[in-house]
Design goal:
The chain has about 525 residues and is α/β, with parallel strands linked by helices. Helix content is about 40%, strand content about 15%. It is built from 22 helices and 21 strands. Strands 1, 2, 3, 4, 5 and 14 form a 6-stranded mixed β-sheet that branches. It has a 5-stranded parallel β-sheet with strand order 6-10-9-7-8. Strands 11-16-15-12-13 form a 5-stranded parallel β-sheet. The longest helix has 22 residues, at about 505-525. The mean pLDDT is about 95.
Length: about 525
C-alpha cells in the first residue's frame, strides 16, 4: 500500500521504536541543524544530499520510513522524491522534531549519539581503565615501556596525534596487537580525539584477553591539548603487517570474543539466500576492513564500513532498525570483533560471513560506487575545467558550489558562491545576476542533481562543471580557501571543536562535558537497548 505523506503522531512513533520489525527514522534537515537537536535513533539524510545517501542507508524500497523535519516542509519534499525513486512506505512525523520535544520526549545534540552514549555505558559497565594526559606524559618522559595506539582512521590521525603514537583503528587493535606489543610487560594506551573510541578500543583489547596493562587515554587528543601538551600533525604512522603467529593468536582471541557475546556466523549459501530475499527483508553487507583493502578486492554489493567507524557512527551506516546485518573481512578477526560490539549495542540480527571474502575469486575491485537514483534524469549541459577557466572572469559568469561548507572553506574555485541545494530558493537572491551559471560540487555529482533545481529559478544558461572541483584541482588550477561568498548559512555541517578557527579550546571542553552527560539523557529517553554480559 502506498502511504504517501501519511502523518504519524509522535506517540505512535515512540511505540513503533519499541516494537519488533523494521523501521527507519530519517531526519532530512541539514547536518548542522540536525546536530542542534534530534531523535536518538534518527539517521541524518539531508534533503540536499538525499540521492547520495539513501540507497546505502535504506537498500530495500519497501522498508518502512518515517521522515522528520522542523515542520518547515522539508519532509514532504523528501517524501515526494523518495516515492519517485520507488520507496512505497513513506510517512512523515506529525509536527516534526519540535512536536517530539513538546510531547516530553528527548532531543539530543551532536552527532553519532547512540555510539557516543554506548562508549560511556561501556566505561561505566566494564570499569574500563583510563589514564590522564599528565600521567601519560610523566610515563613517556620517564622512558617507560609503553605504546600509544590511536584508534581512529588514518585521515583523522594525520590531522593530529599524540607524539609517538601509532595509528591502529578500532577493530584493527585485536587483529594487530600481538605484533605491536609482543611483550606482556608493555603498557598499552589507546586514544582517539575524545572519549568513545579510546574506551571501546581499550575495552576491545581487554575483552580479547591480552595480558598487558591497558588504559584509555582520558579525553583523547583533546584532553592532551587542553592539558597544554603539543600534538603532532601530518604524521603517517601505520601499524606493522600481521605476522603468521600474530594472526593465529588474533583468530583464537576473536573466536573467544564471538562466543562470549553470541556472535553468529553464516556461510556463502545463507548469504546468497538472504540476498534473494532482500526485497522482503533489509540486508546490509559491510566490509569492515580498511579502505585500501576494500578497494583491492571485496564481495560484490558489499559496502565499506571500517570496523572502528561502524561502531563509532552506527546510525550513519544502519538506518533500518531490525535489519539483517552481515559483516565480512578476510580473516574473520575484525568482523567478529566489530560484531561483538554491535551485539552489545543492542542489534539483534548480526552475523559474520565465514570464511570471509575468500581467495579473490569473484571479487570486485576499486572504490564503492553507491546507487544514486535520479542522477541519469538530468540533461544539463557540461563545461570542462579548461573551458570554465577561459571564461571564469567574464562578467555574468557565476560559479555556484554545492560542496559541504567544511570542504568549501578548505578550497573552492576562486569567486565561487556557496549554496545549499535544499534552500536554494531562499539563497538565490544573494547570488549575483548571471548570464551563465556554472554548478560544481566535490566530484560534480551533486551539482548535476541540482541542475534542474537551479534551472527552475533562472533564465540564465546553466552548466555543470564536468568532474566538479576535483577536476578543476586536477587540471592544476588554483583554489581559494575561506568561507567567502556565502549565499546561505553554514549550518549544513557540524563543526567539530578541532575544525574551528576560533574558540577551539572552549568547544573542546564543552564537547567532552557533553559526552560525559549522555548517559543521564539516554536513561531519560528510554529507547536504547544496550546489553550487559557477564564479565
Amino acid at each position: 500500500m502506498n502511504s504517501r505523506n501519511i502523518p504519524i503522531p509522535v506517540h505512535d512513533l515512540m511505540a513503533w521504536l519499541g516494537a519488533p520489525g523494521e523501521l527507519a527514522v530519517l531526519d532530512v534537515r541539514e547536518e548542522g541543524v540536525f546536530a542542534n537537536g534530534h531523535m536518538l535513533w534518527a539517521s541524518n539524510v539531508p534533503l540536499s544530499r538525499l540521492e547520495l545517501l539513501i540507497r546505502d542507508l535504506v537498500p530495500r524500497l519497501s522498508a518502512s520510513l518515517v521522515l522528520c523535519d522542523d515542520g518547515d516542509g522539508l519532509a514532504p519534499r523528501a517524501a515526494a522524491r523518495l516515492e519517485s525513486f520507488g520507496y512505497d512506505d513513506v510517512k512523515i512525523l506529525e509536527g516534526g522534531v519540535q512536536a517530539w520535544a513538546q510531547a516530553g520526549f528527548e532531543l539530543f545534540s551532536g552527532l553519532n549519539v547512540p555510539s557516543k552514549a554506548f562508549g560511556e555505558f561501556i566505561e561505566e559497565e566494564c570499569g574500563t581503565p583510563h589514564i590522564a594526559a599528565a600521567e601519560l606524559k610523566r610515563r613517556l618522559d620517564a622512558g617507560e615501556d609503553l605504546i600509544i595506539l590511536d584508534a581512529r582512521p588514518m585521515n583523522e590521525f594525520n590531522r593530529m596525534n599524540i607524539p609517538g603514537a601509532i595509528d591502529c583503528p578500532g577493530a584493527e587493535l585485536a587483529y594487530r596487537i600481538q605484533d605491536l606489543a609482543p611483550s606482556p610487560e608493555t603498557r598499552i594506551v589507546v586514544n582517539c580525539a575524545g572519549r568513545t573510541r579510546s574506551i571501546i578500543g581499550a575495552q576491545t583489547l581487554i575483552n580479547s584477553g591480552v595480558s598487558n596493562q591497558v588504559s584509555a587515554l582520558e579525553n583523547g587528543t583533546m584532553g592532551w591539548h587542553l592539558t597544554g601538551y603539543e600534538l603532532e600533525h601530518g604524521q603517517d604512522r601505520p601499524p606493522p603487517a600481521v605476522s603468521d603467529e600474530g594472526l593465529i593468536i588474533a583468530r583464537a582471541r576473536a573466536r573467544d570474543m564471538a562466543a562470549r557475546f553470541g556472535v553468529k556466523a553464516i556461510d556463502r549459501a545463507t548469504l546468497a539466500q538472504w540476498r534473494a530475499e532482500c526485497d522482503r527483508r533489509t540486508l546490509y553487507v559491510f566490509d569492515v576492513r580498511g579502505p585500501d583493502e576494500f578497494e583491492a578486492g571485496h564481495l560484490p554489493g558489499a559496502v565499506p564500513a571500517q570496523g572502528v567507524q561502524l561502531v563509532q557512527r552506527t546510525e550513519a551506516f544502519i538506518a533500518v532498525r531490525g535489519a539483517r546485518i552481515v559483516l565480512v573481512d578476510d580473516t574473520g578477526v575484525r568482523a567478529m570483533v566489530t560484531a561483538s560490539w554491535l551485539v552489545q549495542m543492542g542489534f539483534d540480527d548480526i552475523h559474520v560471513l565465514e570464511p570471509g571474502i575468500g581467495d579473490g575469486d569473484g571479487l570486485e575491485t576499486g572504490p564503492h560506487h553507491p546507487l544514486i537514483p535520479g542522477q541519469g534524469d538530468t540533461d544539463a549541459a557540461t563545461i570542462t575545467p579548461q573551458e570554465l577557466r577561459a571564461v571564469a572572469e567574464q562578467d555574468g559568469v557565476v560559479v555556484i558550489d554545492f560542496a559541504r561548507s567544511l570542504d568549501y572553506g578548505a578550497g573552492h574555485i576562486p569567486g565561487a558562491w556557496f549554496a545549499i541545494r535544499a534552500r536554494l530558493g531562499d539563497s538565490f537572491a544573494n547570488i549575483p545576476d548571471a548570464c551563465m551559471l556554472v554548478l560544481t560540487s566535490d566530484n560534480g555529482t551533486l551539482a548535476r542533481l541540482a541542475a534542474a533545481d537551479v534551472q527552475g529559478l533562472t533564465t540564465a544558461a546553466v552548466k555543470v562543471l564536468d568532474g566538479g572541483t576535483q577536476a578543476w584541482r586536477g587540471a592544476g588550477y588554483a583554489l581559494q580557501d575561506g568561507l567567502t561568498n556565502l549565499a546561505d548559512k553554514t549550518d549544513d555541517a557540524f563543526w567539530r571543536p578541532y575544525e574551528r578557527s576560533a574558540g577551539a579550546e572552549a568547544a573542546m571542553t564543552a564537547y567532552l562535558d557533553w559526552e560525559l552527560g549522555l548517559m543521564e539523557q539516554i536513561a531519560r529517553d528510554g529507547t536504547a537497548r544496550f546489553r550487559t554480559f557477564p564479565r
